[in-house]
Amino acid sequence: MFSFLASCSSQSEYCNERFEYCLNYPAAFEPFGSSKSGDGQIFYIDGGKIELLVWGSVNGQKRTLEQEKQYISQNRTVEYQTIKSKFFVISGFENGKVFYLRTEKTQNGFRSFEIRYPKEEKETYDKFVEKINFQEKK
User: Fold this and answer.
1) 16 touches 22 (CB < 8 A)
2) How far apart are CA 95 and CA 27, in angstroms?
3) Residue 66: in which H helix or E strand, if any?
4) Which phi and psi angles does 82 have, rounded to 5°?
5) Rounded to 5 degrees, what are φ and ψ at 30?
6) Distance between CA atoms of residues 138 and 73, nearest Å
7) Of 8, 32, 101, 121, whose CB has the highest number of CB atoms within 10 Å?
8) 24: which residues sit within 8 A by CB, 6+ positions away?
9) Of 120, 110, 115, which is closest to residue 132 (Cα–Cα)?
């Protein structure tokens, strides 16, 4: 348990060249692989028990943040949502897991991350959400 708690407090960084962003995330996550299109990465803890997905997208349909939020929220049980001028957050339950998704508007599209973890371990993994954030690519 000690090494797990230590890995929660130390951070790693993933940078995406194509969409020019970096994501800081808890070092407990292990990279699983980038998508073929180069838009993002998947990270796991405990063989996929906890998942972190990160991706960028071009806004070819010229969606507003509200439209993107509605699109991403389809067919999901959303328990919490907020929208600000440059980002939105939705959270809820899907397939027995908690999900937390944050999408930020960029110059040409969106960048998003989503973390999923077992509902019964919500208290343990809720704190991970606070440790995940985007920053501009250096």
Assistant:
1) yes
2) 25
3) helix 65-73
4) -150, 150
5) -110, 135
6) 31
7) 101
8) 11, 12, 13, 131, 132, 133, 134, 135
9) 115
pTM for this predicted structure: 0.90
Find, among 104, 103, 98, the residue nearest to 125 by Cα: 98
b/e burial code for range 32-52 (CB count within 10 A of at least 16 → b): eebeeeebbbbbbbeeeebbb
Q: Concatenate the DSSP letters of all residues of 78-137 into one string.
A: EEEEEE-SSEEEEEEEETTEEEEEEEEE-SSEEEEEEEEEEGGGHHHHHHHHTT-EEEE-
Q: What are the backbone dihedrals phi and psi of residue 66, each rounded to the nearest 5 degrees, phi first?
A: -60, -45
Alpha-carbon Rg for the chain in angstroms:
15
8 A C-beta contact, residue 63 and residue 71: yes
